[in-house]
Design a protein that fits this description.
This protein has 9 helices and 20 strands. With 376 residues, it is an alpha+beta fold. The protein folds into 4 domains: 84 residues, Outer membrane lipoprotein wza domain like (Outer membrane lipoprotein wza fold like); 78 residues, Outer membrane lipoprotein wza fold like; 84 residues, Roll (Outer membrane lipoprotein wza fold like), CATH 3.10.560.10; 68 residues, Outer membrane lipoprotein wza domain like (Outer membrane lipoprotein wza fold like, Roll). The strands form 4 sheets. It has a 5-stranded mixed β-sheet. A 5-stranded mixed β-sheet has the order 7-6-10-8-9, covered by helices on one side. A 5-stranded mixed β-sheet has the order 12-11-15-13-14, with no helix packed on it.
């Protein structure tokens, strides 16, 4: 109807009101998915089933549907309704504001195999997506080919590109699973290895080369595979025993010509050097200086590396001076130490007060001497 989809004009204001009365529908025992049912107009339970049948899971257990109202649990016999025998209860039971409806599913069985850490068979009554069963299987093996995960269902095969789900949030590549699904995560057949080089050379990630990939595409399309804090002047590619330096700055600036394009090959090793970052410790510590930044480390860790607090230093007051010049008092559990921060330990207040009293005491001594001889 045209009135339901009006043509907008300049200056129109659109207001979408909030529901004033609603019921909440959950499907699956984990209460992970909630749908809100507008009750602006009266709605019987049979109307709800008729109008919102698309919300019910395909493997619904018709004997396990419940309505929760005012701490009371009402069992709804959907079997009669779904078979065409609508009971008086489903006709006369009207939904009320704050009602909660829970529809459970029958037990499902999935099998996941291939490049996961813990291949196994799962039995569950929860509604599960591909990401759920991957998590329950311990996650991916490091050689997993995420772009071609296969699900076999009723003798049909479906291929999903899980990278699109990770990169773009594409839920079509993270499907709901159905009873009897067989999930297979293949291993990479061709891949390049990324290494992170700091104090030592360590494995970072593997890059699937099932489809042609250039080094520029790796930087642009797979940023989550690139270590943070890389040194743009130090990046190399090792191939067939030969090592070459990569002009990472020009790649990042997208200034690479066709002749300079690097097509990655099976067995390539890419090394990213990491710029060292430090935390500085100053003030009343035994060995002030700079120390390698350790993500998540507390101030006490760096103070210990600096030889601990001196006898004249405060053990209760620690200040953090950030790289932008801002200063704050360190609070355990709340203050985060970042790269390039300075940890400053002041002296005890009593020491500061004592040093302040030294010149005052000398002045008072002189005044007292003058007063004594003047009145002698």
């Amino acid at each position: 109807m045209e009135s339901e989809n009006p043509t907008l004009k300049d200056g129109d204001v659109i207001y979408v009101p909030y529901m004033k009365k609603y019921a909440t529908f959950y499907r699956g025992e984990d209460y992970g998915q909630a749908y809100y049912i507008d009750l602006t107009n009266p709605m019987s339970f049979s109307d709800f089933i008729r109008n919102y049948s698309h919300l019910f899971p395909p493997n619904l257990d018709p004997k396990r549907c419940y309505l929760f109202r005012d701490n009371e649990q009402i069992t709804i016999d959907l079997e009669k309704y779904l078979s065409g025998k609508i009971t008086e209860d489903t006709d006369t039971l009207y939904l009320s504001h704050n009602d909660k409806i829970l529809a459970l599913i029958e037990e499902q069985r999935f099998i996941i195999n291939g490049a996961v850490k813990n291949p196994q068979e799962f039995k569950t009554t929860k509604i599960s997506r591909l990401s759920d069963i991957i998590r329950d299987a311990g996650g991916f093996h490091r050689f997993a080919a995420l772009s071609s995960i296969k699900i076999t269902r009723n003798h049909n095969e479906f291929i999903y590109n899980y990278i699109k789900y990770l990169k773009e949030g594409d839920e079509t590549q993270n499907p709901f699973l159905m009873d009897g699904d067989f999930v297979y995560v293949p291993f990479m057949e061709k891949f390049a290895t990324i290494y992170k080089i700091g104090d030592e050379r360590s494995y970072w990630a593997y890059v699937d080369l099932a489809n042609p990939l250039t080094f520029s595409q790796l930087l642009r399309d797979y940023p989550y595979l690139i270590p943070s804090g890389i040194d743009p002047d130090k990046c190399y590619l090792k191939r067939n025993g030969e090592t070459r330096l990569i002009d990472l700055r020009r790649h990042l600036a997208n200034e690479i010509t066709e002749a300079e394009t690097i097509h990655l090959e099976n067995g390539d090793e890419i090394g990213f050097y990491i710029k060292p970052t430090f935390v500085y410790v100053a003030g009343s510590v035994n060995e002030p200086g700079q120390f390698y930044f350790i993500p998540g480390a507390k101030a006490q860790k760096y103070i210990s590396m600096a030889g601990g607090v001196t006898s004249s230093g405060s053990k209760t007051k620690i200040y953090i001076i950030h790289s932008d010049g801002k200063r704050e008092k360190y609070i355990i559990g709340k203050t985060t130490i970042k790269a390039d921060d300075m940890i400053y330990i002041p002296e005890k207040n009593t020491i500061v007060f004592r040093d302040f009293l030294v010149p005052i005491s000398s002045a008072l001594s002189i005044l007292f001497t003058i007063y004594y001889f003047a009145n002698k």
